[in-house]
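Checklist before submission:
- one chain only
- standard amino acids only
- sequence pasted in full

Submission:
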Amino acid sequence: MLTRLANFLDPVRVLELEAKLEKETGQTRAAEWEVAIGYALSNMGRIEGFYQQRGGNPDFIWTPEERSIIVEVTSVSDVALHNHNPVQLFTSELYRVAARLGISKHGALSYQFGSVEEGDRVTVAVPAKKDHAEFFRRADTKAFFKQIRCEPDRQRTFSFFERGAASSITYRPGQGYSSGGGYRSYTVPQTYRHAPVFNALKKKERQIKDSGAMHPSILFICDNDCNALHQAHTSATGTQLGMRDIVGLFLNGQHRQMIGDLVWNQSVPAQASKIHAVIWISVKENWAPFVRNPTFALSPHIEYAHYADTYLRSNEFIDRVNQALSCLPIPHRTPRNAAIERHYPQHYGEWKMSASEVTFSALTLQKLLIGEISHEKFRQDHPELIAQLKRFSDQGLMIDFASIEACENEDDDWIKLRFLGRNPEKLFSNVKRER
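Returned file contents:
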């Protein structure tokens, strides 16, 4: 795709895009979307760069017929919300600590995290990322784990207060694997000023205005793991705002509406004067029965400003856009799977054992083999698993069967190893002194 765009764009810009694509950074998926949209539009019209001697120029000038249109492409993600609410990192560390202490073999941990609403965002009651290590060093946290180890057959709950709300972790004996938990979604838009989308709209409106561009402008907002993009309309209960409402309020505002003395809708001032239309594209993940892997599709929507150019509202323009978007390649994975940062695989530190089998994280084994997880780290966080594997080896047993237990909705699978074969290096079994 970039090879085609290189025929129309400034060589310096092509090199910048190439560098972003070659090395995985926070800008990689944004560059992928920019190239993909430019490529798609180039199939249904002329594409050229916007060359002004100033910074922050729009991405493309697209001429689908006789009218030239300014095109700006941006991608939005919930990464700032994830950083503010490091729930996945906290629970990953929780299970890792439990595994290191040997708690996982006796029972399972679950959690319920409280939350508070602060303006336009939700704060989940878990420690901030910088405070994770300190949380697990606290005397009350250590006492909770110590009590479990002393009485592993007794259910216990540890309550704590973080960032303005109460949360709890519960240990239940006799359950295999972690049993998950619950917390309020912090990526659901609370108001039309939902941070990732609203901030992107403000930034691009200002950028187009500063460019001095005189052509009508359209903005593509692309999915880089942003929950807001996956709901076009506000939910029937009003608990989740849709993109059409968020974008519509930004472009056109809203008059105050009264029913008698009751304020039905508050007045919202319009924020835009340069963006004529916004097209947002989300990545949809579809699961079919009895199919191991999902299929993916792109879902586009459009919203207009009240001052939008007549041509942009025409059937001819919509047809051109639809034909161009049909040239977009289908993603191989969700933006979430590509973007979520995990220090360890999802099932890291969890395992099950029997007299002849062990089951643990398949991705952990892969990273162990290629050196991304050291043997020392693996041994430290899987002490009972290592001890069982050593017992199999001391008994002269070797792997005679391996199978994968696929987890369709997770980023990790389970691998089961069975030990029944005889190790040819062992002349006798059980020759070591019992301790």
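Reviewer check: Confidence is low (pLDDT under 50) at residues 431-435.
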